[in-house]
Amino acid sequence: MIDFGRIILIGRHEKITDEKRYILSAITPMLEKAAEALKERWPDRLDAWERWNVAAWHVDGPILQRVDLLRFEGLGIAPLPHLTERWVYVAKFHHIDPLDVPNDPPLLHRSSQLLDPDNLPPQGNRRVPKAELRRTPERITDLERALEQEGLLDAPQAQTARGMERLLRWKGLRIVSKGEGWKLETVPDDQRWTTVTGGDRLHQILPERLDQAGPRGLSLGVVEA
After folding, report:
1. Predicted pLDDT at 199
2. Higher pLDDT, 133 or 199
3. Minimum mean pLDDT among 24-33, 51-60, 103-112, 176-185: which range?
4. Exposure letters 148-168 (e unless 16+ CB within 10 A, then b)
């Protein structure tokens, strides 16, 4: 759970603790109503309910209660999951609709706080030993600490995929996949403009669909680690 004051993020696969039970019990009725609204308004898109993995509860007023159902690709797998789908439910009107995701998708920072090592999101076709799988949140936390030390988590520019890539480039840093984990390292001078690397696992670091974004977007190269 991540509390931003006006918005509280709650992971679908989050570990339930005593201090979180109050928030979870408060949002559960809204989620149930959101599911009902989806069935009523979008009966041909019910599979969207299975895809969301983070709920963003807007708590800035009792009149217009709202919850966003978000799909962050790579949650529980990658250190910087990116937004791929968003549905918004407004309780006052019992209304739910999809909202477009920007071409430069938002990143989810500190995603390890929304995970339970014993109940991670489905890994698709990846066959990862359970012992290794349980260490993923810890490895994500390690990279988050490194990014935070460089001021790369809270900066406004770092909230989107392209913005994060630009900041890494300006700082002469890159994220490198190391086995099942990740490392933030300094870029050698002769490779200064190649800031993100990871071979065939590049899509687990930043969204690969942006890899042709051009010189002012992602400029992704592959460097053997």
Report:
1. 40
2. 133
3. 176-185
4. eeeebbeeeebebbbbbbbbb
Biggest distance spanned by C-alpha atoms of the chain: 58
Taking CA atoms, 182 is separated from 30, 68, 79, 120, 128, in Å, by 37, 30, 8, 18, 16
Q: Residue 188's pLDDT is what?
A: 78
Q: Give dist(CA 136, CA 147) in Å, integer.
A: 17
Q: Please give the pLDDT value at position 216.
A: 31
| DSSP conformational letter for 33 | H
74 and 113 Cβ atoms separated by less than 8 Å:
no
CA distances, 170 to each of 54, 176, 189 (Å): 31, 17, 12
pTM: 0.79
**DSSP string for 81-93:** -EEEEEEEEEGGG
Domain chopping of the chain, boundaries:
2-99
- Give 47's contacts (C-beta < 8 A, 6+ positions apart): none
Residue type, position 126, single letter: R
In degrees and rounded to multiples of 5, residue 203 shows phi and psi of -65, -15
Return the H-helix or E-strand segment holding 66: strand 66-73
Residue whose C-alpha is closest to residue 99's, from 64, 70, 73, 63: 70
Return the residue matching tokens 């680690």.
225
